[in-house]
User: Which sequence fits this backbone?
């Protein structure tokens, strides 16, 4: 219920900016720093372009989990869409709210991304994939990544735990 309330707030409070549709910002400086650090760590290791994804999961009124990961293409966005984007420095960070997507992948989600929105993300972040989409009408394959997901646990606004986990939300 909280997730739906947050999403409705996002939709009702956003104003369109000229370059992008960024209407939210992260208030927690520690969370900002952790996302940027994770991004920079992966940027040093990866040669291919990627985007950071943060999955937010509220456990109760005081504990929240943030799972930070990266995607190398747009293939999962068709099945598991992001719910909003936040800009940190020059980094586009895509957020998903746990519980808003079903694990059955696509079709049954409350919300799905429009194909043209997915294509715009490909155009901006994944030029090779976008070129393929223009030629063939859809993306080719998804890139599987076996890297570590960073799990942050916050108690109210304080980081109480940080660990790298393998592909678990």
Assistant:
């Amino acid at each position: 219920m909280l997730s739906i309330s947050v999403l409705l707030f996002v939709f009702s409070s956003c104003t369109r900016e000229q370059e992008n549709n960024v209407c939210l910002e992260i208030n927690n400086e520690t969370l900002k720093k952790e996302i940027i650090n994770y991004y920079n760590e992966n940027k040093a290791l990866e040669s291919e372009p990627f985007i950071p994804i943060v999955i937010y999961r509220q456990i109760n009124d005081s504990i929240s989990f943030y799972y930070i990961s990266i995607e190398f293409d747009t293939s999962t966005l068709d099945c598991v869409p992001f719910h909003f984007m936040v800009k940190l420095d020059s980094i586009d960070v895509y957020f998903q709210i746990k519980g808003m997507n079903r694990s059955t992948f696509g079709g049954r989600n409350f919300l799905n991304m429009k194909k043209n929105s997915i294509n715009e993300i490909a155009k901006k972040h994944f030029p090779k994939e976008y070129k393929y989409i223009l030629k063939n009408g859809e993306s080719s394959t998804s890139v599987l990544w076996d890297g570590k997901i960073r799990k942050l646990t916050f108690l109210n606004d304080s980081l109480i735990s940080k660990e790298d986990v393998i592909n678990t939300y």
